[in-house]
Amino acid sequence: MAKAGGKSGGGGKKGLKRKASAEEPQEAAAAEDGATESGVPPPKSAAFPPGFSISEIKNKQRRHLMFTRWKQQQRKEKLAIKKKLKKEREALGDKAPPKPVPKTIDNQRVYDETIVDPNDEEVAYDEATDEFASYFNRQTSPKILITTSDRPHGRTVRLCEQLSTVIPNSHVYYRRGLALKKIIPQCISRDFTDLIVINEDRKIPNGLILSHLPSGPTAHFKMSSVRLRKEIKRRGKDPTEHIPEVILNNFTTRLGHSIGRMFASLFPHNPQFIGRQVATFHNQRDYIFFRFHRYIFKSEKKVGIQELGPRFTLKLRSLQKGTFDSKYGEYEWVHKPREMDTSRRKFHL
Amino acid sequence: MAAAAGARWNHVWVGTETGILKGVNLQRKQAANFTAAGQPRREEAVSALCWGAGGETQILVGCADRTVRFFSTEEGRFQGQKHCPGGEGTFRGLAQVDSTLITCVDSGIVRVWRENDKEASSDPLLELSVGPGVCRMRQDPAHPHMVATGGKENALKVWDLQGSEEPVFRAKNVRNDWLDLRVPIWDQDIQFLPESQKLVTCTGYHQVRVYDPASPQRRPVLEVTYGEYPLMAMTLTPGGNSVIVGNTHGQLAEIDLRQGCLLGCLKGLAGSVRGLQCHPSKPLLASCGLDRVLRIHRIQNPRGLEHKVYLKSQLNCLLLSGRDNWEDEPQEAKKAPPEDTETDELWASLEAAAKRTLPDSEHTQGALQTRRRKKQRPGSTSA
Fold first, then answer.
1. Which of A11, A26, B284, B357 is most deeply packed, by most CB within 10 A?
2. CA distance A5 to B122
């Protein structure tokens, strides 16, 4: 036994695999015939007593060894299966069945009954007469006020300036400790349609409050991954004054529709295609990615894009009916992590 | 047509911001829209609902354009309307007593109207001015001529419509708080407790207060706070010892009125709670809110969600049918064959979960509990 112990202790690598496998049944079940030690590895299924698993081995080194060996075997088997499948596909040629689509969390998404059906009249009426109706009927054009939380630091200030170049007809004002509830009536009287407040914590912007002004909903987002212009690699020159186009991706549910309309109402209706600038709000798994690009069509089907402008990621925390009033306002939707985040395949936007 | 014919069996009636009255049948898992004009109109946003005369056969729908529409559940259509001018704002309370209609608007004008279905608006029989900023007017179910009103900076007052112009009971504000500041008043919902003269109110400053007009003190007898957000709606539980309140964050809580403590919470709502009602005998709670979903919770043994129905508009108020048998009555003989084929088609067209039959009485509850646990979403439907 000392000899066996020494061998497994000294080697523990591939060279001693056979011996080790022969030794295991000896240690595990003493009734095994010890003569099999020399070279012939017993078939695994016969060697191990039923109900044995690698995790029951108390010795860490041996357990690790067994596990790595098992893992290598699994990998080999997987490779072999793949090779076989590939050969079969090549052999069949054109008649091969189409490749199966891999499962991702996005295509395993649980069925959401709030996904808007484009033919639904009730939802269409609801949207046609909601707070954004005046924008979508082309009765008002957007005028946006961008401000921050009190005493912003450099990054936040620069983000505000860059945002104001991205969003046309926007004005940046320094927040001098004014209460939002006092700013809002003043904005309404000066015909502002939207208010953006960038919240800052520990010198980096981390929140965004978007409030549609006359009486409209207020959305509160968590902002992350903020990259200013100089941090973006291979970027183009600064954006021009042309009105950009807007792309809203993947806002499928009713809540997503409301948020999508909120973003759309930030930009004027008539994009200037000469400017070739586009702002994208892409929703994936409840995270909204904001990007600003300049595109150029190199041919009919090939486009080249240059990223300009800041980029950031937003996650919706709450949608409140009415202008900003976090204490007494009525919430249309509040994100409750412990109730809503129980399934990895359920999304709300 | 099937929807209109089966309207009497709907369990919950919900009024929306787009002016649609929705009838939801939880047994068949269907929701039907009823509009007065055939099209939804935002001017007709439903702000108050109450049962009309004669059991649960008529619903009075108070709309934002100051008309009260009469809806018959037997026939499944709107029958008439009455324009109730006077004062400003939307309806905050609707009630029916004998053959008169009581309305209360935001600016504090309470009027009693003679209930004839004529379009011409007759003069009100009685008019009271309650004070501005009313949030709720509620009728005492035991004494139909007593109403209570309360609102923002408008203390709770109980009025006797057959009595004098002065309120029978006028509540007094609580003492100044520990900083010696006046505590603001914002009564959002009022309920009369059965078998006593007491009233419960829930406020926008997250307090639940019990008043007793029979006691010499006009201040609240009991005060409980819950949460940090304004409480929007309240309902009494079948036992009569507790109330369930909902706030603007969608949190529902059951509060015991004997001890003044929190019994438990109900999960699920994501938006502000606008309407709450408990069944008078069964432990069921219907809740609706701004997140466009009607939910039916079970309050005891065990506490949890029973049904969830996505109704595409923001829901303002609801009426839960108080009848004991929740299954449809067997249809009259002459209607039986066509009803069967229609329901068969409906069953075939329904997507997934329409196969289980809801329990009528308690003996099947044990078995069904486990089945409910296995399913992901017990009985969600869409209109």
1. B284
2. 105
